[in-house]
Amino acid sequence: MKNLAFLSIAIAAASVLGSGRQVGAQDNRYREKFDTAVTLDRGGTVSISVYSGHVNVVGVSGSQVRVHGLVDRGELRFDSHSGSVRMQIEPEERRSGNAELDITVPLGTRVQIDGFSAPYSVKGVKGEVKLESMSGSADVNDAVGSVSIETVAGNILASNINGDLRASAVSGRLDISNVNGDI
Question: What's the predicted TM-score (pTM) here?
């Protein structure tokens, strides 16, 4: 039986700040907290698309994908089925679409991330990883199977990979260790 859930959260003005706010002060009018959990079949796929911010993905035991974080000046589209979860941050018109996300996934999950300007960390998933970024660092540790990491401007750290690794950076440092497969 497929578990189908669709959730779309539009970031709206949560409060109106007075005109006397300090320059550089945090503007909370466009920030929205996000905290949800869904069940994912064993070996499922989690796809994440983020314009800017940071994304941390960690593998844990169990069958739940849990997403906790903040979305700033954008819309989070969240779609889950029994075998896949998709998250996409759509920037508001003339706004950055920043997201600060901490995500836990079941061990063995395939993780796919694409983004523009954000640091990404994928640790302990014990599944395949595909990560593409224009400008942002990528840290992948403890993955199994095919791992592909590409950045245009960002450093890549890949370690403890039990499978083949493809890593490329146009402008960035590659730091690769403990790969049991082709590089």
Answer: 0.82
